[in-house]
Every structure is written in structure tokens, then in C-alpha cells.
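Morning. Coffee machine broken again, so started the prediction first thing and wrote up yesterday's gels while waiting. Chain of 240 residues, entered below exactly as on the submission form.
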Amino acid sequence: MGRHERLADLADVDADGLVVADLGCGTGRTVRTLLAGRHAPVTVHAVDQAVELDDDLLADQRVVSRVADLDDPLPFADASLDRIVSMNVAENLADPARFLRECLRVLRPGGLAVIGHTDFDTALFTSDDDELTRVLVDRFVAVVPDWQLRADGFMGRKLLWLAADSPLELVDVHAWADAHQRFDEGSLAWKIAMGMVASAADDPVLSELATTWMASVRRLADEGRFLFAVTDVVVVLRRP
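Came back before lunch.
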């Protein structure tokens, strides 16, 4: 079971007539998984700063695409949602605690919020140089990419205390680290590795080492000796 399947499973949409919002939906992989279940929600609001959904999802009458800044109040009336799912959003927010208070406002009593985040500091790569890998992971965690206003590579491990300090009831906490051997373009390992290389760009010596490291990881993947994993943390919250 992959990340999106786990999120959908934890959202517990196995009931008729549910209204769900995916906050920070991206390309809609979690939306697609929610709709594929035996009891699909009657409506899934796909919310993000830009519309990136595939055409088939945009054409699905059950999907409502909404453009919104998640630092602003959520674009829903009070007590109008049964479920919220949100993955890898919290690090981008100016005030994650306020976001959770907004989740409380828009959920119906008994409604669930499934909030997840990758803890990027836990990225595991097979490589020829463990020390350099650690340096590059540390650099990646510390540097905010040009395309983000904010980043926090430790956000996964911070979700629990954010949840504990929120007005929502903590139902459960989960963590997983799926192992992958893929290192082709577009794979999660490749995306994080590219971020690691980019984070070293302002240091000529480290940048050259990072480029060589990337090539060595690709070689290990071609030889079938590569392994990647990173930990996702998810909290399940309920509106009392």
C-alpha cells in the first residue's frame, strides 16, 4: 500500500454521502485514490494554489477544484466537511497551528482530519560515500528551495506536538518508510536527490561532489544495488 492509499484508508470514507477536502492536492493522486474506493465520497474538494489535476479528474462531477492560499481562511463554511486530508502542506504554512484551527472550524462534529508530512531528514540513500550523503541530506534539510517561501525538513516529527496543541482530538499517529529501488527521473528518490544537489549549488566544491554523488547513485541503481526510503508521519484528528 502506497502513501496515497494509506491516506485514503486513514480518512475512513467507507460511508455514503461524505464530503471530503484534499488540502494541497497537487496533481490529485490522493483525490484519485479516494474516488476509487468502494464507497467513494459524494464530493471531493481538490484545493491548492494552482490547478494541477489531470483532465479526467477535472471532468469528474464528484471533484470540485478550488484555488486557494492555505495561509488564508479555508474556503468552506463552518461545519461543512466530513473529512480532510492534507499531505506535505504544513512546512509551507506561515502558521500551521492556525491551519489546524481552520480544519476544526470547517469539519462537522465527529469529522476527521488526516494530516501527513514527510520527514525529509530521514532520507536514506545507498551510496558509495555515507559521510557525503549525510552532508547532502543535512544541506537539503537546511536550505529553502527557490520555489518555496518556507521549508522544514523536520516537519514530519513535529506533527504530533502540533496536533497535541490543537483543539482537535488526537485519534492516532502513524509512520512508515516504504523502500524503493527506483532512481529514474520522476521517482521520489530522484526528486529528493535533485533537491540535495540543488541545495549545494552555492558551494562550488560541494556542488561538484554532489554531481559525482548523483552519478554514483545512478550507477548503483543500474546495478540493482540501490535502496531509498524516507519516513512519512500522519496524525489522525477528530473534531469533538
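The radius of gyration is 19 Å. Going to sketch it on the whiteboard this afternoon.
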